[in-house]
Amino acid sequence: MNVLRGIGVLESKILMLLNCHPRIFLYNPVQLKEIVEEKFLAAVHALTSMSKSTLEKKFDVYRRWGWSDQEIHEAFQRYPSCITASEDKIMAIMDFLVNKMGYNSTLIANNQVALFAQELLSQGLVNNLKLSVLFDTSEKVFIRMFVDHFINKAADLSKLYKEKLKISEKKLEGS
């Protein structure tokens, strides 16, 4: 808690985290600070890279797919760069995941691994991903099965995954 207080997280947000996500407080304090700072920088970069009207247009794209404002904000908190993609790319990804893969759009909002699935498929690394693989597999197992497994075929895959999810394999193995 002191780490979060020390970097300016409001007491109300700390209490919400404690209530909703108590596992966060099991992290090594140094590692937790690095994660929060990394997420914060990614969020600041995402928000400052566009005007408010552009940001609102991107939010509108997610709303057209049935996402509530809360789901948009939660997805942004987990995956800040989800708003840095163009409106066309957001539409293409959502179209692919919902219409071609058959995923419920609100499940995508709550599972950042699904946003990486299109990249695996578009690179021809996998032919089909079942919904259960995306939503029932922990991130650690997903990394082992779909990122590490294809590292020789797509060297940039690990970097891409880290960019898209803003986590590293080392942090996952430490949890």
From TrEMBL:
InterPro entries on file: MTERF, MTERF_sf
Signal peptide (from-to): none
Keywords assigned by UniProt, alphabetized: Transcription, Transcription regulation, Transcription termination, Transit peptide
Alphabetical list of SMART domains matching this protein: Mterf
GO biological process: DNA-templated transcription termination
GO MF entries: nucleic acid binding
Family of this protein: Belongs to the mTERF family.
PANTHER family given in the database record: CGI-12 PROTEIN-RELATED (PTHR13068), TRANSCRIPTION TERMINATION FACTOR MTERF15, MITOCHONDRIAL-LIKE (PTHR13068:SF166)
Protein name from the UniProt record: Uncharacterized protein
